[in-house]
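Why does this matter for the project? Reviewers at the last site visit asked to see concrete outputs rather than summary tables. In response, this paragraph embeds two records directly. Each consists of the residue sequence and, immediately after it, the corresponding structure tokens. Nothing has been edited or filtered.
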Amino acid sequence: MSSTSQHEVTQLLVAWGNGDQAALDKLMPLVHEELHRIAHHYMRQENPDHTLQTTALVNEAYLRLVGQRQAHWHNRTQFFAIAAQMMRRILVDHARGQIRAKRGGGVRAVALDESIVMAPERAGDLVALDDALKTLATIDSRKIQIVELRYFGGLTVEETAEVLGVAPVTVMRDWSLAKAWLLRELER
């Protein structure tokens, strides 16, 4: 995205946050490709037979973003960080639903081959990661923000530092510590 369009995205976000619905109509074509890139990043980490498609993930995140009535958008980086966080939550909710269905939480019985598609093995991994992230959030909220922005949002160190208002070296240090902590938690 060129610096001109980045600036335009920021202006449209601020206008939309101030209630200008026409700004939303102009904004979405500009951010759609980046939202799709973020969703594709998430979906690459899922099983190939995942029942949720990239476009569906983008559409669900879009609906949730549009539903943000009280949002005060500061810039495009903040917007994409929140979009990435929403996509992660959508995938975690989807995974939790698959686990419930696998454990008999569904109403109907399914054939074995259908249940394989409905309950990919990575659903448990995603839920475990989400649980570890929730624990990390109670210990150090900045580290969880860095994980969400860097890993899930695909932001650079510099963009993450800008969103959080810290130095890039702080982002790198916290990123390293968060990865080590999460690895230890997930190995338990």
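We now turn to the second protein, recorded in exactly the same manner.
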Amino acid sequence: MNRHWYVLDASTVPLGRLSTTAASLLMGKQKPNLAPHIDAGDYVVVINSDSLIITGNKTANKVYHRHSGFPSGLRQKTLGEVLAKNSSEIIRHAVRGMLPDNKLRKGRLARLKIYGSSDHPHQAQNPQSVTLVGSDKR
């Protein structure tokens, strides 16, 4: 299986458009030998996650929930709080939600590499830059 490397820039498009493109590349939807039971996807490198574009009032209104399983174990954080602490987790969470829930999801997420700046250690793999549709700063 021949896997390619792609680079997506998070500072050019909103989060939803970025994560749908990343999920599509991780699943291998662009390849002619697509089969749902075979993991034929590619590697995806997301750069500039610190300058992620969030539209609307999502930084204050969108809430991430976690529960420990114990009584009163619910923990909530807004998107703004998570963005200030670790912006790569927002992208990872969004892409994970767009991948199918099966045994292949863990391996696909392992091929997602997210970096806060434009520097990444994957230059030796000759990654192709992907121009995302609707690349306008909002």
